[in-house]
Amino acid sequence: MKPKSKVHFIIRLLTCFRKIKADIALIGLAVMGQNLILNMDEKGFVVCAYNRTVSKVKEFLENEAKGTNVIGAESLEDMVSKLQRPRKVMLLVKAGSAVDDFIKQLVPLLTPGDVIIDGGNSEYQDTSRRCLELEKLGLLYVGSGVSGGEEGARHGPSLMPGGHEAAWPIIQPIFQAICAKADGEPCCEWVGDGGAGHFVKMVHNGIEYGDMQLICEAYHIMTALGLSAEQMAEEFGKWNSAELDSFLIEITRDILKYKDNKGYLLERIRDTAGQKGTGKWTAIAALQYGVPVTLIGEAVFSRCLSALKDERVRASTVLKGPTVKPKVDNVPKFLNDIKHALYCAKIVSYAQGFMLMREAASENNWRLNYGGIALMWRGGCIIRSVFLGNIKDAYTSQPQLTNLLLDEFFKNAIAQGQDSWREVVANAFRWGIPVPALSTALSFYDGYRTSKLPANLLQAQRDYFGAHTYELLGQEGKFHHTNWTGTGGNVSASTYQA
Ligand code: NBP
Fold first, then answer.
1. Residues of the chain with pLDDT under 50
2. By alpha-carbon position, which residue is closest to atom 41 of ligand 1?
C-alpha cells in the first residue's frame, strides 16, 4: 500500500525515527482490533499495535498494515514508551479475565491521568468495578461499546463510551473521527459514568436479537404461505424503502436471494441459532431491574428453542398442531399486514429497551441522553435504521418522555398498524406458527394500555396463602391482611413484594 499523502509520508518517516510518538496504543490484533487500527491510521492517528501473542504484531505490520503509519511493540513496556502523554491504551481482547490480566500488567507502567479503554463486549458491572479500582490509582478508565462488526470497525463503528468522564476530552478527537456518521453527526457521544457505555451496548445487542427474531417470524409466516424466495426478497426490498428501512431488512433481502451452485443457500442452513450471551445479559438485567423487556427475552428463548433441533424433530412426528392450513384470500394485503405487525412490535421492543435504560440510569445515577443514544445507533451498527432517526426526534423534542409508546409519532404508527398486527398474530396462532416476539409485544402493548389488570386477584391469592397483604384502591400505602378461611391467624408477612 502506498502512503496516501505527503503528510502521511512525513509522519511515517518521523515515526520510523521515533520523532513522533503514537497517539494511542491498541492491544488485541484479532478482527476488531486490526480493523480499528487501520481506521484510526486512515484518519491520521499514529497507532501502536500490540498483542498477547507477540508474533501477530510483526505479521500485521508486514501484511494488513504494510505501508501505513502503524508502529508495533514487542512488549507492554515498549508499547508504553512509544506513547504520547497522557497515554491512551485501548483493549480489544476477549471479554472477561483477559481484560483484567492486561489491566494488571498495565497499571505499573502507566502514570496518573493516563487512559485505559476497553472496547470489547465486557459485562457492564465488570466495567463499573474496574472504574472504581482504577480511580483509586488516578488512572482514567473507559468501557466503550463498539458496534458494527468487522466492516464497522474498519470504516466507522457506532461507539458508546462511558466511565471516567475526565477521559472524554482526551479520547473524543479520535473516537469522533473514526466513528460512523449519520446525517453528518458522529455516532459516538459520551454515555455516562461507570459501566454506562457497556450497559447501553448490551441493550443495543439485546435489541438486535429482538429485531432479528421479528424478521425471522415474518419470514416464517411468508414461508408457510408458500411464497418463493424471490417473492420474499422482493417484499423485504419494498419494506426497505419505507419506514422499516434498515441494515437488517436489507441483508435479509440479499440473504433470501443468495444462490450458489446448489440453489438457494438459506434453505440448506440448519435451523439452530447460536448466541454469545449479550442478549441473555439484557434479559437478566431486565429481570434484575424489574423491567418487562419481554420481546428481547422471547428472542433469547427462541434461540434456545431452536438449539433443541433433535428434540424438535422427534416432537414434530408426535405432537399435533391445528388442522387449518395457512391461507389468505389477499396475499399482497396480508404481506402489508405482516409489515405493520413487524413495525408495531419493533416499536414496542425499542420502547422496552429504553425503559430498561431509564431504570438502570435511575438506579446507577447515570445521566443518559436518550436522543444521543438513538443517534449513536443510527449509523455504523447492526441495528442502524431510519427508525432510530424517529426515536432521536422523539427524545430530542421531549427529553423527559416516559415511554416511547406515548410519543405522538409512535402512538400514531401503532394506531395505524395495530389491526394488521392483531390479524397477523391471530392467524399465526390459528395456523400453529410460533410468533413469540410478535405476540409478546402485542400482549405488552395491551397490558401497558390497560388501567386495571387482574393483579388484584394475584395479590389476593398471595395474601390468602402467604399473608403478603394487599392495598385497597384509593388507600395506597396502607397494607391489609384478611383471614380468608377463618382458620388462619391475623399476622401478616413483612414481604409485600416477595
Ligand atoms: P476475540 O474476541 O476473538 O479476541 C481475540 C483477542 O483476545 C486476541 O488478541 C487474543 O490474543 C486475545 N486474548 C484471548 Br482470545 N484470550 C486472552 C487472554 N487470556 N489474555 C490476553 N489476551 C487474550 O477478538 P475480536 O472478535 O476482535 O473481538 C474483540 C472484542 O470486541 C471482544 O470483546 C468482542 O466480544 C468484541 N466485539 C467483537 C465484535 C465482532 O464482530 N467480532 C463486534 C463487537 C465487539 P492472542 O492473539 O494472543 O490469542
1. 1-3
2. 149
